[in-house]
Every structure is written in C-alpha cells, then in structure tokens.
Amino acid sequence: MANTLDIHIFDQKSDLIQQVTQSILEDIRHYVNVFGDARILLSGGSTPGPVYKELDTHISNLQVIIGLVDERYVAFESEYSNERLIRECFPQLMNVSGKLKGMVYDLNDEHANIGRVAEEYRIFSERTDIVLLGMGEDGHFASIFPNDPASELALQESNQSIRSTRAPNYPNQRITWDLKSLCQARTAYLVITGEKKLDLLLDSTLNLPIHHLLQANPELKIYHSK
C-alpha cells in the first residue's frame, strides 16, 4: 500500500499548511471557474484550522459553499461544535459571499435531525468538489469509528448518505457522511500529523476505517508532517 499512496511528507507543520492551502486554493478557483461556485466539505479539529484561516484571506471574493464532513450532536454554542470552529476560521468569507451549512437543526430528535441534514445537504449530494478529512489515532475518519455498529454501516454501500454514529469519547452522538458519499467528491484530501498516525495509516493489516477509505479512494491526496 505504501508504494501506491499519494503522500506528501513535510518536516514542518508550517510547510504542510502552506502546501495544502495552496493546493485547495487552486482547486477552489478551478471549480468556481467551471461551475460558478465551489462546494466543499470540511472537517473540524485543530490540524486543519490554520489551513482554513489562511484560505479565508484569499477566497472571500469567490462563491464558496461550505458543508461539514461530520459534526458532534451539540448546540452551536458548544466548544465541541465543528460548525462553530469552522465559522470562526472564515470570518471574511462568511461576511462577504460564503455560505456554511451546519448539521444540527433539532437537538431533541436525532432521527428527525438526520432527515433535515439530508435535505439541507442535497446540494452536496448533487455535487461535492472538495472534501478535507483528518484521522484520529484510533484510525477513524469523519465520524466513522472502529467498533461502532453504526459506523460499520457507514462503511458499506447504502442509499443513506448521512448517518448517526457513536464515538468512544464525549460527545458520543455524532453525525457523518458515509464512505461512499465522501469518495464521490471530485478532489479529496487527508491531512495528518505525527509519526504514530502515519505508521497506523500504512499498516493495512489493522483494517481500521481509514484503511477502508484508502481502498475506496486511491486518488486521495495525503499530506503529513511530524
């Protein structure tokens, strides 16, 4: 597997941020030129945050529609909210031309919430140009986790693109796109840091969710730094 993966390795995280930002920026401009807008799905977490902040300085004059790869089933005000984090990373874009669709509409009915997200995210089901993913030290991506029956379903072929899953840590209730849908993005990035994650990524014998992603999307662009 190591010989077939498209991995870009950097010694410094600052170099990774610069290269990922530049590559995504070029993609956004391309898709805006082709389609009139760029539709992107973004992950939360501290690793991609600097990329988002750097992108914000360059794309405020472009038509960009942002959705979430996954979300914690919490209120927007929560410190765990991915929507809140991403909005804070794109102040210029949000103030000018950008749109961001969250994933939490009904905190009282998880099933009804999933149905609402599916409706709101129809625009991404029709076309997703860019998706940016991260990976946990347990081999999860998006909110698709090891040893979770709901996550197992998210790794399988299905007509349900958005699912509720359960994380091993708080907040346990999660919302996520499934594997098949994420692989339909025209361009996909995986950004990871640390040698432990790289070693895990390269060990396909572990058969973790991330290895299902690598198998399903051989064109995934992987960026890693120490």
Structural account:
- It is built from 10 helices and 10 strands.
- With 226 residues, the chain is an alpha/beta fold.
- A 7-stranded parallel beta sheet has the order 1-10-9-6-2-3-5, with helices on both faces. A 3-stranded antiparallel beta sheet has the order 4-8-7.
- The longest helix has 23 residues.
- The protein is globular.
Strand residue content: 15-25%
Instruction: Report the span from N to C terminus.
Output: 20 Å
User: What class, by secondary structure content?
Assistant: alpha/beta
Overall radius of gyration: 16 Å
Q: How many strands appear in the DSSP assignment? A: 10
Describe what is shown at a glance.
This protein has helices spanning 13-35, 49-59, 82-89, 91-95, 110-120, 122-126, 149-154, 179-182, 195-202, 209-216, and strands at residues 6-10, 38-42, 64-68, 70-72, 99-100, 130-133, 162-166, 173-177, 187-193, 221-225. It is α/β, with parallel strands linked by helices.
